[in-house]
Design brief:
455 residues, alpha/beta, FAD/NAD(P)-binding domain, D-Amino Acid Oxidase, Chain A, domain 2, 3 domains, 7-stranded mixed β-sheet, 6-stranded mixed β-sheet, 14 helices, 24% strand, globular, binds flavin-adenine dinucleotide
């Protein structure tokens, strides 16, 4: 790189901490400013969700920096979806074609703490996390940052030398400051659903009260409950409900209503969440937003990475997988020492933008799939046919497999190919009542032909 050797990061969340490790391994000095206190020392929330589903893209980046094993030691593999019907019956839908193809439930706190520990293990003179420094403004022209000390409210101005990278998440201050730059486009789309976390505590002797190795889903059309396992035997449940209307967060305004609602809609869960009403009224209700913006950079001064550039809804379990993939791709571009920061930023955003747009769209689609379709007989036939095709033809991959288990396949390619094969599968499945009635050979030929015609 032909310019300054210090990179300033705003946000020591998951993306910022991993990026700091990558940058420092390439010889850059890294100065990170984080709004929150140090989560390893103070009892604060680790962020948006207690746990996360980590899959091949995220793990690939962690492997590159030598941290995959330590994270996986504390992860719980989830082999498939466990669907809870209203009549309490269970259906298991495996995720992958092999037993290795699982997604992993990982504690957000642990992941962020391990990353921060490893940032601090690096040369202390060259890499530093400054906690309780909330960025409140930036002058791109002068590379000047303004911070508020979140403990004392003191305002601090910092003059930076090299580029500033906004890894400050979906409500990015750096992105908000870009709004004033002509040519910067921003699109924010909030779902009319929000989310709330609830807990199924461990059973006796830290046992798991429901299937340990699964991602549990209670699909109920307009709303949905999911649960991911934690190593201590507990499950973190996330309730996705509309903000308004019947059975919405605003409707459920009394203990009686909440209990009645759970009894009716989630009859096999209510006894497993002893603090249901307390948690329901204490835990915050979060918003779900998709952010698309462009360009992601301001000359050679600043760049957005992770949720700051492309926040997505959590229904494909890909937000941080995409953020970690950002870091890996960015790191790959740092190899060319002749290139200026600005050229690198432009190359990076052109590589990533089509892919993060694709996963943003797939995540929204998956919201409707998880909420409305996982209990729909035609959808279940289609899923079964996909599994049969995956089993019989090694070259057939479902969109979910491409996204989740194949980090060599770009998100945009996964989406494009998925649309082609979905069209055929939907047409074929519409005609039958059983997956076994489908002529797999004829279906795969149609898919292959259409794929060939579409490049
Ligand atoms: C309910 C829910 C469930 C999810 N589940 C999954 C999942 O299963 N799998 C998955 O891959 N993804 C999941 N995601 C998405 C994932 O959480 C995000 O993609 C990921 O957290 C993005 O990481 P980030 O570091 O870019 O941003 P963030 O995690 O938001 O981190 C941003 C950091 O910047 C700091 N910061 C913010 N503003 C400032 C400021 N002004 N000054 C200084 N510091 C600042 C914050 O304190 C934070 O530390 C989920 C999201 C939600 C909401």
């Amino acid at each position: 790189m032909d310019q300054n050797n210090t990179v300033t990061l705003i946000g020591a969340g998951l993306t910022g901490s991993l990026l700091a490790i990558y940058l420092s391994r390439k010889g850059y000095d890294v100065n990170i400013f984080e709004r929150r206190p140090d989560m390893r020392k103070e009892k604060i929330s680790a962020g948006k969700s207690i746990n996360l589903a980590l899959s091949s893209r995220g793990l690939r980046a962690l492997r590159e920096v030598g941290l995959e094993d330590v994270i996986m030691e504390n992860a719980i593999p989830m082999k498939g979806r466990v669907i809870h019907a209203l009549d309490k019956s269970l259906t298991f839908q495996p995720y992958g074609r092999t037993k290795e193809q699982v997604i992993n439930s990982v504690s957000r706190r642990l992941l962020n703490s391990v990353l921060m520990d490893n940032v601090e293990k690096l040369d202390k003179d060259k890499v530093k996390i400054n906690f309780k420094r909330k960025c409140i403004g930036i002058s791109f022209k002068d590379s000047l940052l303004r911070f508020e000390d979140s403990a004392t409210s003191e305002i601090i101005t910092v003059n930076t030398d090299g580029p500033i990278i906004g890894t400050d998440g979906s409500a990015s201050v750096i992105r908000n400051e870009m709004i004033n730059i002509p040519g910067f486009n921003l699109n924010q789309y909030f779902l009319d659903h929000g989310y709330k976390e609830l807990t199924i505590p461990p059973g006796e002797n830290n046992s798991f009260q429901i299937e340990k190795y699964g991602l549990h889903i209670w699909p109920r059309k307009q709303f949905m409950l999911i649960a991911l396992p934690n190593p201590d035997g507990s499950f973190t449940c996330t309730l996705f409900n509309p903000f308004k209307g019947i059975n919405s967060f605003s409707y459920l305004d009394s203990e009686e209503k909440v209990e009645k609602y759970f009894l009716k809609e989630f009859p096999d869960v209510i006894d497993l969440i002893p603090n249901l009403t307390k948690e329901f009224f204490t835990n915050p209700t979060g918003h779900l937003v998709t952010v698309k913006c462009f360009p992601w950079h301001v000359s050679d001064k600043a760049l957005l990475i992770g949720d700051a550039a492309h926040a997505i809804v959590p229904f494909y379990g890909q937000g941080i997988n995409a953020g970690f993939e950002d870091c890996r791709i960015f790191n790959g571009l740092l190899n060319n020492e002749e290139v200026s920061w600005e050229k690198l930023f432009i190359e990076y955003e052109h590589l990533r933008k089509p892919n993060t747009d694709a996963i943003a769209d797939l995540a929204i689609d998956n919201f409707f799939e998880m909420r409305d379709k996982v209990a729909d007989p035609k959808f279940l036939i289609k899923k079964k046919v996909e599994k049969l095709l995956e089993k019989k033809y090694s070259n057939f991959l479902s969109t979910y497999s491409r996204v989740t288990f194949n980090s060599d396949i770009q998100y945009s390619e996964a989406k494009r190919k998925g649309e082609i094969q979905d069209k055929i599968l939907e047409e074929e499945c519409y005609k039958v009542n059983n997956a076994e009635d489908i002529d797999l050979n004829s279906v795969i030929q149609k898919i292959n032909k259409l794929m060939k015609n579409n490049g």
